[in-house]
Every structure is written in C-alpha cells, then in structure tokens.
Amino acid sequence: MQAAGPRAGDGPARVTRSLLIAPQWIGDAVMSEPLVACLAARGEAVTVAALPWVAPVYRVMDGVAAVEELPFAHGRLDLGARWRLGRRWRGRFARAYVLPNALKAALLPWFAGIPQRIGYHGEGRIGLLTRRLPNPGGRPPMVPFYAALAEAGAPADSARPRLRLPAGRLAAVSAAQGLAPGGWFAFAPGAEYGPAKRWPEAHYAALAARLHAAHGLPVLLLGSAKERPIADAIAAAAPAGACRVLCGELALADAIALIAGARGVASNDSGLMHVAAAFGVPQVALFGSTSPRHTPPLSPAARVLWLGGDAGLPCIPCFERVCRYGHTRCLADLAPDRAAAALEDALHAGPSH
Hints:
CATH topology of the largest domain: Rossmann fold
Helix content: 25-40%
Strand content: 15-25%
Order of helices and strands: EEHHEHEHEHEEHHEHEHEHEHEEHH
Largest sheet: 7 strands, mixed
Number of helices: 13
Number of domains: 2
Distance between the termini: 29 Å
CATH architecture of the largest domain: 3-Layer(aba) Sandwich
Radius of gyration: 21 Å
Number of strands: 13
Low-confidence stretches: 1-13
C-alpha cells in the first residue's frame, strides 16, 4: 500500500472507510477524480484498488487516502485471486464504489463482504451490488457518469478533474532528464484504442518543427513501448534535435510529471490528454473517430480540434478503431498549421489551475 496526498480519514474519530474499484484506462481514471474529491470532502477515507498501469494516476489525486495495486491479469477473471484478496479485506471497508461495468469488477467488494456496494447495473450484477444505478444510454460524458455514484452530495456539473504532483517531484524528474523546469513541449502521439484516433505522424513532425523553431525547446514524445515506432517515425521526419523519443523508457509516474511540467502538450484523444487537462497545461487535443462530447479534455487551457461532420465527413464520430473507408480524413484533414495556431492560442492564455 502506498499513500497518496492527504489522508481523508486522519481527523475525525469516526470515518467511513471506502473502497473504490478503479477503471482500467488512464483517461477514465483521471475522469473519476471529481467523484474521489466529493467522497473525501464528505469524510470518506478512500482506498483505490487499481491495476498497476492505472495506479500512478491515483497517487497524484489529493482525495485518495491509499492505493492498492491489484494483482490481476488484464482481461482475465482470476476468480481465485479475487476471492483470496476479498477474504483478506473483510471488515476493512463500509462502502465500495465500483466504477467499471464488468461483472468481475464487482466480485472483489462482494467477496470482501462490504455492506454497501454501489455501481451501475453493468453486466448482470444483481446480488453483487446493493445499489445499482440504471445504465445510461449512448455514450455519456464520463465525469458526471462517475460522479453520479456519489448520489447525495455529488459534484456539480461544472466539476473538472484536477491532479497535483507531490512537492519536489517535477524538479527531480526534469533533472533526471537534463531539462530545465518548463523547458520542453510534450506530445502523446499514440492511442491504445487504434489508428482511427491517431493524428498522422507527418503532421506531428511538422508541428514539432514549428514549435522548435518558434520556442527553441525540445519536444518530448511520450507513450508506451508499443508506441515507440510511431514516435521514432515522428522524430525521423522532424528537424534534427527537435524531438526526444521517450516512449517505453519512462514509468507512467515520470511521464505524468513531464506532462505536468511541459510548456504545452499536443495529443490525440488518449489517457495522457486527460492527464494534461487535469494539470491545466496548455494543450491542443486532436479528435478523429471519437467525440469530444463524450471524453473532452476538461480544462480552460485546452483547445480541441475536431471536424465533427464538417468537410463532407458525415461518418464522424464513428468510434471505429480503424477507418472503415481507409482514408482517416477526420484526422488527416486537421492541418499542422491549424494545430500550431490552436496551441499558440492556449499558450498565450496561460495554464489553468
């Protein structure tokens, strides 16, 4: 167990100890922050149970009392492991909030015998949850979708996610990379979902060239090891020295710090886009097959580019992983000049906290 931020339950003698079952995607984890903040504000000591690749997000949320990394394999039921962990947690929590809709996500609180277990109907979870909210239709905005689990005292509709680095964290990470504080831009050119969410590599290279020429700062290319070929292609197409490829070389906690300290960020609709928004960093977010009505970067410092049915593209949003027509014009037609202008506008407006 690792602490993260102030412990919500250290003050009063009587406190509700709550377990939050985290979603499995970085962006969804960020968008659960208003719910966490609401629970902490009303006196709940929130322990987050998260998969290892999501846990670092909760370690930079002020309302989290503790983080427990789950030992389960991605995509597997792991029934025995869930039962054993649940038995160890018996009597520890009074309330559980189950954010994923999958049946297996509700098993751990049930095995732990947590008296109040709150979530959406999801995948046939009758009996596993004591309070089941009706599944909303379509693709609802994710922040209010999660915040509704707080029920009484839920965050206002205007609530937006906020993250905060521990003191000294940014200085340590930037020093380890040989960078001056604020002396870089960051790109997140990948998207786990698929190529229909990825702005073309040549466009990212052109944007990097413009930023490097205008500001004299390097562009850090951030992402997972799987996104290394994308980053390598961008760096190869950009002017020499404009980009530094860090995909697959950093822990997520370090990538989060470098985003928080960046002069500005450019990204696809991805988890790192939401990280940048939660730190209030000036950013341009490039949407293709998905919709900013569903998962927008919730920050006044964000500029969203999305064709959204313009330019003779009635297929947007299709939410496909790969363009069914093979042209991905929803992203290819977003010119680098337009992205550069949007990011410069965000930079002039300054960061939002």
